[in-house]
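Quick entry between incubations.
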Amino acid sequence: MDQLLHDFSPGLFFMQAIILLILIVLMRKFAWKPILDSLQSREDGIQNALDSAEKAKLEMQNLQADNQKLLQEARAEREEMLKEAREMKNKMIEDAKSEAEGQANKMIAQAQAAIEGEKKAALAELKNHVAGISLEIAEKVMRTELSNKDKQLQLVETMLAEKSLN
Amino acid sequence: MVVAKKSINFIAVLVLALFSISSYGDDAQHKPGNKVDTAEEINEYIAHHLKDSHDFHFYTHNESGTHYSFPLPVIVWTSNGLKTFMSSEFHHDDAGKVIVNKDDTKLVKLHSKIYELESGASSINFDEDHHATNAHKVLDFSITKSVFGMLLTGILMLLGFGALARGYKKGKTIPKGFSRVLEPLVIYVRDEIAKPNIGEKKYRKFMGFLLTVFFFIWILNLLGLTPLGFNVTGQIAVTACLALFTVVIYMFSGTKDFWAHTLWMPGVPYILRPILAVIELVGFVIIKPFSLLIRLFANITAGHFVVMSLIALTITLKASFGPVVSTGMSLALSLFIMVIEILVAFLQAFIFTMLSSLFIGMAVEEHDDHH
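Done. Structure below.
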């Protein structure tokens, strides 16, 4: 201990204090401050880069999910549209078919009515014609029959006979 | 850290290679012209090395007694005011024989300390304990070898870390070259020492001190392992000053909570509180800084002592084992200890910084839970 105290040099202590103080001040100003600041900013930069990469990854995932969803929706819509079109097609065919059928039926009915009309007209004409011919024949017959008195009498007699039969 | 480790290994090999060569040359430093070859002389030589010195000595040529060294400025505050001269005026004398006369102020150098002779005395006298009777120590602000080492370390740090800082300023986010080694070390101190002990919120304010002290101690410890023979962190004045800085910092940054817990511990019977306050205060003001300064000083001094003693084995064991065996043993053992010393150099810097930040952490801690 005595030796230690003897070896202790106050002058050296003083010089050391001054040197250390100046060194701390200089090192702080010219070395530690810029070094620590740069390290800090670099580490912050790295952290930021990592964070933004993570964020970008998440965004990417979201985007992909969105895309998937959109795709799904588009597919569903297409399906829907196809279905609708198919239905429409069927309906149109159905409609056309029924309309055509109605039209056809109507035409057939018209044709039938026309045929009926024509038939009636033809029959009436035929009747008239036949009646005319009959009258003509009857007239001719009558004329020939009644040209003599015998015959007229004979007729009256037949007719009367027929009458009595009734 | 891998890069740092590699470079440390490289430095270690270099240091070992140079240290063993220069130590032979150094042997004769104390008594020029004479070889250091007895146990007493070796002990004296080691003790001399462990002290601070006023000139920068490389080695002495035995036959001619020529010193290869350069002088450093001596600045002393004597009873007649400030005196400055170069240490070469002492002519490598360390026994108080050469008297430097500066305006009637007679100065001598004795065991690396400068003494002022009392007026009228023409040479230094000793009592039986080898204490000077007619001279007193002066306040010595000299640029000694330790101060020189500290200035060198400061310049190295400013250059190295300044370059790293400038690299960032130029917009390069990844440092190049040697800065690439320094950057992980700074990050290591910040993430492994400061943040866990002081806390994420408050560590930034103390980084200037912690980083400076960490690299200051580490570089000085490593310089101490080079053949230049610095023993800066083995000077008790230096470690005391470092510890004092830590104390001042944690005392002045202590929160209200810290002082409340130190001086008037809540949740403890009132009678015990003053006793606890005394214990806590003694702990913070004396015991903690003392443990810091003694640990660093003792580790480094012991390291230097052991390495030098093992190198001296080549001389002390020569008589009993012959030159080859003693040199081989000395080489193997000192190599082994030297590798450990390189680890210790880092470890002591780490422990000093770690404990400093731990104490600062205690002082700035916020107690959420009131007991």
